[in-house]
Specification:
The protein is mostly beta strands. It has one domain: Immunoglobulin-like (Sandwich). The chain contains 1 helix and 6 strands; from the N terminus they run H-E-E-E-E-E-E. The chain is globular, with a radius of gyration of 15 Å.
Amino acid sequence: MPAPAPLPRPAGEVLGDALGLPSARTCVRRGRLRIRVRAPGGARVRSATVRIGKRRMTFTRPRRAVVLKRLPARRFTVRIAVRASNGRVYRSKRTYRACRRA
């Protein structure tokens, strides 16, 4: 029996792994999240925009890694948009949860 066909994605939307978002299966500790910003397909990153709720951070010369601090103590969604050297904009989003305090 053949595998089911994958669901179509909107134009420009890629998996979060391709842009450097960490896995959403583990909880976020100490209100910090580290993102390794990268562009898929061997292109270079020209700029990156990261949004958490209404907070928005834009990096015109993104470093290899961006550390997000002061994150909510509940579930939150991180949206990332990366403008690559090939002129395309790649977007992705992931929902994370904070670790419970013991």
